[in-house]
Specification:
CATH topology of the largest domain: Leucine-rich repeat, LRR (right-handed beta-alpha superhelix)
Mean pLDDT: 87
Strand order of the largest sheet: 1-2-3-4-5-6
CATH architecture of the largest domain: Alpha-Beta Horseshoe
Order of helices and strands: HHHEEHHEHEHEHEH
Shape: globular
CATH class of the largest domain: Alpha Beta
């Protein structure tokens, strides 16, 4: 029996066991399998583990997407979590390309995936407050937002949660060094139904220019003396 003789339901079930690359390769073999590849039932969940994956054409974004996860920790992207003033010109260009890739992808999610329920961004040093603001505005059903070690996230994101996160029930901002205690307290006050987790975030050293850090160090030394 040839695979194309299976009914649509069986083929969709078969595709569900394959990763994105395997689905795409199989879809290239004939028109019938391409139609199965395009079935929204296959694309309610997407996971990505490198910036390069976001630029491939082996997945579909659409209203069927409910759960999205973008997590990476490889050595190549660790530099993107470093403060900008510490990077050389090559590193800045490298990070800028990643930032554009992530921003463009999340903009597509805003425009195509209004039914998103959960979003996990872990280790993504490229995600900005504006990206999260647009997602909260365009995905009103979002219930879970996890932003572990997203170093560019600030209190602006926390404010956006209080204004546009009506459906939100889970918010994780662990190790987001530019989030303050005041911002966290505001979320707890205005959104008491949200389960907020922020391990170490408000206690980490925020990004600042070298001269500001020098001033802090001098002030600290005076207190000691």
């Amino acid at each position: 029996m040839h695979i194309t003789q299976l009914n649509r339901e069986c083929l969709v079930h078969l595709f569900s066991f394959l990763d994105k690359n395997s689905r795409k390769n199989l879809a290239k073999t004939c028109h019938k399998l391409l139609e199965v590849f395009q079935d929204p039932l296959l694309w309610s969940l997407l996971n990505f583990y490198s910036p390069v994956e976001l630029k491939k054409d082996n997945f579909l974004l659409g209203p069927a997407l409910k759960h999205l996860s973008i997590c990476w920790y490889s050595e190549r992207v660790k530099v993107c979590n470093t403060e900008d003033w510490m990077k050389n010109s090559f590193q800045k260009d490298f990070c800028k390309s990643h930032e554009n890739t992530v921003s463009d992808f999340l903009l597509d999610v805003c425009n195509r995936c209004p039914n998103l329920l959960s979003l996990t961004l872990s280790g993504c040093g490229h995600v900005t407050d504006n990206c999260i603001l647009q997602l909260l505005k365009n995905c009103p059903n979002l219930k879970s937002l996890k932003l572990e070690n997203c170093v560019r996230i600030t209190d602006h994101t926390l404010k956006a949660v209080t204004l546009h996160g009506a459906s939100l029930r889970t918010l994780h901002v662990d190790f987001c060094r530019n989030v303050t205690q005041a911002g966290l307290d505001r979320v707890r006050e205005k959104c008491p139904s949200v389960m907020l987790r922020a391990e170490r975030s408000a206690n980490m050293i925020p990004d600042s220019k070298p001269e500001k850090k020098l001033m802090l160090e001098k002030a600290s030394r005076k207190l000691v003396q």
